[in-house]
## 1
Amino acid sequence: MAKLAVFDFDSTLMDGETIDFFAEVLGFKDEVVAITQRAMAGELDFYASLVARVALLKGLPQAKVEEICARLPMMPGAKETVMGLKERGYTVVCFSGGFRDATKPACEKLGIDADFSNFLHAQDGILTGAVGGEMMYSDAKGDMLVRLQALLGVDRADTLVVGDGANDLSMFAHANTRVAFCAKPVLKEAATHCVEVKDLTQILQIV
């Protein structure tokens, strides 16, 4: 029986928000954090908030982006949880409204089967402040989940989703096991399980 587990990246697989680490280097972390928190709480349109935050990254060298992404802190228990799920027959995937620069190295490290995220546009090795990709909209994760379920032959009964913010709501709509991980109230309301400690291995007790 095919099974699918989908994890959000920022503040779920990774302990923090990638864009906040970038903004810290540029000296306006507080401004970006404030927008991120409102977007994750469902107070702002995700697409508009993403475009606004990425615009603030204009001028950041691509090399600095890669350096920051190579040392992002993983959430406690991330690797053990991915391994445990794969041992139980799950295909493990990451959906991120964040960036491929961050998800690709992290998912390779964690042994995740595939990652879907957005791309930061750079020209001559410098970020332009533009972003593109399939995970830019509030309903993007749900849309991608339905497509993956069809591709892999997995139904919602055999689908596990894990996230922390409002942009995870759309994928919660298509899975029977929905874990809100140290999450915003808006996501907890849609969850079947809530984990309140920063320890992803708690999920292995649910499935």
Note: The longest strand covers residues 90-99.
## 2
Amino acid sequence: MEDMPKKQIPAVEGLFTMPPEEPHLKGSKCNACGDYFFPRVDSCRNPHCSKDKPVEEVLLSRKGKLYSFTVNHYPPPIFHKPDPFVPYSLGLIELPEGIRVTSIIGEEYNQDNLKVGMEMEMIIDKLYEDKDGNEVISWRFLPVSS
């Protein structure tokens, strides 16, 4: 019997486009004030907005700049913890739309090869395998290779 390809399941439904080729985060844009939001919202969160026009779903830019980052040396209190735990970098990516999104960057990146202001690009990557062998996937931003 041939090995079946592993099914890819988003860690959280509706946050990014599927299939994962040319992935984008799904956000919202207010048609009254022009503000962007991630994740999507049903109404504008800007307290100074007139809110006289609806928000629309938009695909956010795949590239941005590394605004800030940290290296996590302690396991996070989330649903999946690698065992054994390996420190990993977590970044804040500033998108051209004017918003910042948090992203796992990965264990292969740290203070030696990350620099605030560097260009980053979104990918979809395996977060872990579930009990049925499916790949649970999420977004990551990685440095754009020179």
Note: Residues 20 and 38 are 18 Å apart (CA to CA).
## 3
Amino acid sequence: MRRLRFTFIVVVTALGSGCGGAAESDTEPKVLRKRMVKEQLEAPGRDIKHRRTLKAMGEVPRHEFVPANMRRYAYTDRPLRIGHGQTISQPYIVAFMTEQLDPQPTDKILEIGTGSGYQAAVLSALVKEVYTIEIVEPLAKRSKDTLARLGYTNVKTKLGDGYQGWPEKAPFDAVIVTCSPTHVPQPLVDQLKEGGKMIIPVGKFGSQKLYLLKKQGGRVQQTAVLAVRFVPMTGTAQKKPKGDDK
């Protein structure tokens, strides 16, 4: 298991500032994204190597997915609050989870926990279709509007309980879960294609591990790959004990 090394780099910029000032230049966010990729993702101890993931991380405008008052911190090495008790994950975690799935251009991916929409935007540059579910209604609406405004037309959004997945759109080549249940939801396993992968944090807050699952012969092989800290999965996940998915 790779050990997660935290390096906090605070870059204060004028992203999103204005109030009558000059229009924001495209140059500064591009420079900050390039620096983010080099210093936070490719750096020794981080070692993200999946070239297509690095390219997507260098292109998706992360500052567009955070609240206006947080945009100056959009490219720093940390998660950020997006309201309603939720966060946008640290850039390294987004890249790491994406790399673990090894997404292919023909893939159809299910994301549980749309949040800001940033992870879905990164995936949209790498695969054919992204289906993403958010249980918090204001976040679901905001992320849908943001993704549409920025032109991510291959991302389909849904307000709902992610524990149940999106059965009418299954099967999926991969599943990515950005909130932590205490066990792997069986509906998500059922909706995963044979040979497909799932990346999911599992455990109670403060003692979570990120697991990579591979479905073979109708069963899943799982490997713990990283110690993490995600917000808990809500809805059905809070009511069902492990093994009770009926």
Note: The CA atoms of residues 105 and 126 lie 6 Å apart.
